[in-house]
Amino acid sequence: MLHRRNLALLAALTPLATALGGTPIGVKPGLWEMTVDRDTKGGPAAPAMASMPPDALDRLPPEMRARIEAQMKQRAEGGGSGHEVYQHCITQADLDKPLFKQHDDPSCKMTPVTQTSSKMEYSFECNHEGQRQTGRISFSASDSEHVSGTTVMNAQAAGRDMTVSMKIAGKWVGASCGDITTRKKPAG
Prior knowledge:
Oligomer: single chain
Order of helices and strands: HEHHHEHHEEEEEE
Structural class: alpha+beta
Low-confidence stretches: 1-12, 45-51
Mean pLDDT: 75
Number of strands: 8
Radius of gyration: 16 Å
Shape: globular
Helix content: 10-25%
Largest sheet: 8 strands, antiparallel
Number of helices: 6
Strand order of the largest sheet: 3-4-5-6-7-1-2-8
């Protein structure tokens, strides 16, 4: 079975992120609209999905839990693609923190490839209980109000392989986040 905690980590990477303790990507804090297109190939068999500990799901915010459960169900059925648009509040404190201090996972090693104010790229490897995920994440800012990125993750466990590819685009909506503190689908 593929380790769900690390798949949840991948899902968490879609908001804007700062570099690994290096130069933060030069974007404005505030409300961002993110568009994520995902393509999944392969994946664990359906019974493996049922083995995710309920307490792990219980600790997630309701919107993230619903999204991850839907993605797990889709992956259990053999992968597929998805399109999501949501709004996300990014504070200056978020931009000042290294990404993986926000999403600590001791089973993952992050290796910076490029860190500038307009581009960040790094590779990662996660190993947990005989399950391995590797990949590369890249974000670039064409200016302080627009970002784009890609994420590719390959996972192997118990003779099963899965590849998740994401294309991410973000645009700054405004300085005020209103009542949005994490993720929210935009109105309309």
